Model the fold of this input.
Amino acid sequence: MKDENDYLTPVQVAVVIINTMLGAGILTLPRTTVNAAHTPDVWISIMLGGFIIILLGMVIVRLGLRYRGQTFYQYVSRITGRWIGAFLSAIVILYFMLVASYEVRALSEVTGLYLLEGTPSWAIIMPFLWVGGYLIRGGAGALARLCEVILPITGIIFFLTMFLSFGIFDIHNLRPVLGLGVTPVLKGIEPAILSFIGFETLLVLQAFMKTPEKAAKSVIVGTLIPTAFYVTTVVMVIGALTVDGVVTRTWPTMDLIRSFELSGLIFERFESFLLVIWIMQIYSTFTVTCYASALGIAQLTGRNLKSVINVLLPVIYVLSMAPHSLKELNKLGDVLGLTALCLFGLLPPLLLILSKWKAGKKDGIVS
Amino acid sequence: MGLYPNLKRVVVILWLLLLTGCWSSNEIEDLSVYVGIALDKGRETAEEQQLREQGATDESMDRVTATLQIISSKSSSSGDQSAKANQKPFMNTAGTGDSVFEIFREFASRRDLPVIGHHMKIVVISGGLARANRLDDLLDFFYRDNDIRPSCYVVVSRGEARKTLETKVPGSIPAFRLVGMMDNRNRTLEVIPAVSLSKLQGYLQSGTSFILQNVLSAQGEIKFSGAAVIKGKTKKLIGYLNEGELKGIVWLKGSGKGGLVKAYDRDSGRAMAYEIKSMKSTIKSRADGEKLSFDVNIESEGRLIELWNHANLFNRPSTKQLEAIFEQKVRLLIDQAIKKMQQQYRVDAADFGSHVRIEHPRLWQSVKKDWDSVFSQSPIHYKVQLKITEFGSLIN
Done:
């Protein structure tokens, strides 16, 4: 039987969702959104994107409520039948696996560029994988508690470093608001939504909730807080680097922090702070997705979670090394985002309808 | 596990080996930290010439000479006091080539300590070089490099850039002096807001014209004087603004933080000075169809800080008259600046374009391609209002 510690509270679920959303995207978001919109209005796109994500999340919550205590992998075959269910589960498992390897690779790219130049990427990635593997052996409870620890640290350091850049912030760079109408804003929504990928972990997490009804609240809080992070990022980055300056930088948020120095304080430069919290966020995103993937395999094949993890980590390592260049990595990120949108935007509503229809039919037979 | 009860312990102890050090660490004593760079038109230094004569091959076309200002770590370490006092805390060393990165790596074959750019504070580009080369080409390496931070400043020197990295003051580091001078904006209108690499990239990408601070040097002394005008379309230097014209632009933009206006009394011809306490300018763009015009309203408050007029104590000009004299002086500066921008260089060096971008975003889409020439045909109407609010410690 599960003991009290294996259940997740609604707050914990919200925190895990936040930590999963905040990941590689935070360093590239200003560029990807501005590239699509070409106006400074992308902060509106991000807010709209957050709103859409809340709606999508709600569908997953409703779906989960019909199958209390079950993960997606368990209930999907009850809706669609065994084989289609197994197929869909396999796709979701593969998706989580790829996200995990994408995050790991992004970590090695950025730390290799700014922090540990000269350290081979395997030496960065392997310890990272081991520590991640160690955490998820503890299960969802351990995962959630770790997320609870790192989220406040992330928040404080993030907003502090962002606001320290106020010296080079110029409000004129963000004007005019809606100068070219709403079309650019709409164009910016797509890349904005991609940064909110992470809400789909609810497919797994809701099963661990004692009160799954409250998952809706978790989704709302879990999306609004990343929205605040993202809007702050985009506003500060564009305010300092201008719309035209953002589009050419690979990691614009890093460049924002690298663009100022404060003399007189103990610290003059703050990029290492940003990198530290960013690495923590990558770590949490990695562990959550890796866990979601491992749990799926375990439930699908009926094997022990721990042994699945032992096999999964090397696979993720190999996958993370697959992209040959940063360009390919970015492409993988885009493809993953689009897959996620299609997969978790369309699949849950379909399943929900199907499940209701099935239930209705059953009721009809009974009555 | 039963077979090897101590295996866990052994593994844990082996883990400790991983904690022994940083993988890619470099001791600071083993590095040459450069803090400033001067880029000049390519001319081989004497050492380089001799090296080449002895057989060092170099097939580059000698476009750029980069002078690095390296902080010498040896000077700060032990040594007897007298020797230390005579020793300069920095060392300038130059290399020539057509790729900036190649020049930098060339130093690896010329000195034992590799150069690193984490602490680079300033790039000085010589005017001649900026006239002949696009700034985005010249600075490309600095933008790509992961050591050099985008917070590094960029200035132009009308003369030889390497001369601005020299000093006669023992113990001072010229690159730091240049950066420190940029903080003096509350004292003079001649220092314009510092342009960092990241700010510069915004300009270069958007294709607007802009100005960069100009540095002059003479015998180890340097001075910020006027500005270099970079044309947005070519991204090359097209000319300079002298100090008066630069002040005119500062007044137009209302960007000054402090400084003075000096004028002369019409009758006596003696000097008088107004110390700026505040400066504000509101620029409004007006679009009449395709025709653009600007209304600029400049307001300033300050104190009368010097007046050479004690001879005719009872016949002093009134405050109103003094204000009028100062206002006229400011108007003169502004007229000069507008004339230079609109008639001689035909570029918008005072960022009027961003007002159109913000106030008439749709019109901006059609004019931004050719903004500099649209700007030079747009009339600028301005009003200047100076207010003397106090007279210092003297009563009037």
Summary: The two ends of chain B are 95 Å apart (CA to CA). Residues 130 and 252 of chain B are 26 Å apart (CA to CA). Residues 28-41+60-73+84-241 of chain B form one domain.
